[in-house]
Amino acid sequence: MIKIAHESPKSIFDDVQKVTDYDYALVHLLEEDEQYLKHFQQAIKKGREVILDNSIFELEEAFEAEKFAYWVDKIRPEWYIVPDALENSLLTMAQMEKWNAEYKDLPGKKIGVVQGQTYQSIIDCYKYMDYVANVDMIAISFDYSYYNESVPHANKYVSWMLGRIKLLGDLLKHGIINKKKPHHLLGCGLPQEFSFYKHSDYDWIYSLDTSNPVVHGIKGIRYGDDGLWNKESQKLYELINYEVEDTNIIMNNIQKFRWLTNGRHKVDSVL
After folding, report:
1. 10-residue averages of pLDDT along the chain (271 residues)
2. Is residue 28 left, alpha or beta, with left meaning phi > 0 and alpha meaning psi from -120 to 50?
3. d(CA 50, CA 109)
4. Domain boundaries, position 181
5. Is residue 95 helix, strand or coil?
6. Beta-ladder partners of 111
7. What's 201's DSSP letter?
8. With b meaning 16 or more CB within 10 Å and e meaning fewer, what string describes 220-242?
């Protein structure tokens, strides 16, 4: 079973928390929003599993390392994503090396993100995270530009979906994947991607995060039984203060997402 987290507006934090497996925090919002911070402090106090993200997807560059370390120490999440560099394997590895030298005594478990623009650079970064940095979990993103070359398609979201499926399959086939180490899938192009990983060959995938079912629900877009074939480009953090009045479509989408991913529902009890 893959653990699922869905980022959501503050107005439905509690509702979404009831139907997800863990919580996913964006570090820049901890700094900007006291209510957001308190929500995650309370979740951690109650024993809720939390991943702290360095906000690179939202900010287009990772949060400053020193400030990120401050927040790791302050809220003490179970997991945190070490600051990386988008599609730059060499800089990502250098930043990890510096992090390990300067912040080795921080609490929590480290997640290293694989970055790169070619299959070989992705492999090099993966091996570094696994063997040299020896991170506790390895993360792989949904939107590498490499996917567009690996699996060209007129619909870029299909390319991203099939591209990550192919990348993980290739890494597995070539003996690169460390099956003894948990892996995290960052983000989502199309939700039906995750139905591919139900096979036992992919039981090393520990978790994923995406706001996809929530954002589409807010926009009034209901998942079909086969997911979606297009995607809203809205980033969830831009909706963090949105007042949700009706959660019906959101909960429908979360239910469908869970079914696509794990073949099970967790929403029925709260509908």
Report:
1. 97 97 97 97 97 93 94 98 97 98 96 98 98 97 97 96 98 97 97 93 97 97 94 90 97 96 58 32
2. alpha
3. 11
4. 3-270
5. helix
6. 81, 137
7. G
8. ebebeeebbeebeeeebbebbeb
Tokens read off for 182 = 């948990």
Domain count, the chain: 1
Cα-Cα-Cα-Cα dihedral sign, residues 7, 12, 17, 23: positive
With tokens 């960052």, the residue in question is 186
| Measured distance CA(125)–CA(92) in Å, rounded | 8
pLDDT of residue 152: 97
> What is the per-residue pLDDT for 264?
57
The per-residue pLDDT for 206 is 98
Q: Which two tokens stand for residue 27?
A: 């570090």
Quote the tokens at residue 51. 């991943």
Pick the closest to residue 111 from 88, 133, 142 (CA basis): 133
Q: What are the two backbone dihedrals, phi and then psi, of residue 255, each rounded to the nearest 5 degrees? A: -60, -45
Burial of residue 268, with CB atoms counted within 10 A of its CB: 0-12 exposed, 13-18 middle, 19 or more buried: exposed
> CA–CA distance from 227 to each of 16, 152, 178 (Å)?
19, 21, 30
Alpha carbons 158 and 17: distance in angstroms, whole number = 29
Total length of the chain: 271
CB atoms within 10 A of CB 271: 11
Which CATH number fits the domain that encloses residue 169? 3.20.20.105
**In whole angstroms, what is the distance from residue 85 CA to residue 7 CA?**
22
